[in-house]
Amino acid sequence: AAPYADDLFDVLHQKGFSFLLLNRQQEARRDLRASIALAPERMSSWYVLGQYHRLRFEETPALECYWRVRNSIDPLRVWAGLM
Q1: Is 23 left (phi over 0), alpha (psi -120 to 50) or beta?
Q2: What is the per-residue pLDDT across 22-64, written as a single tens digit (0 to 9) for each?
Q3: How far apart are CA 20 and CA 72, in angstroms?
Q4: DSSP code, position 7
């Protein structure tokens, strides 16, 4: 299910992202939160969690996630800034 995963963070991140694409939002949130708990400094799950909140029209949590990515050195900071 996660062919490019290097570690448990990547497995949970890819699972959460896949669940979000399948509109299985509760499972997506659960796995994204678990991946963030494992490696809060890695920004990809923060960005996807921002997408989760944006799709649910939860403005403040979405902006908090995007702000965290925007203030990092991760390449996703450009996209987070656009959101």
Answers
A1: left
A2: 999 999 999 999 999 999 998 999 999 999 999 889 999 999 9
A3: 23
A4: S
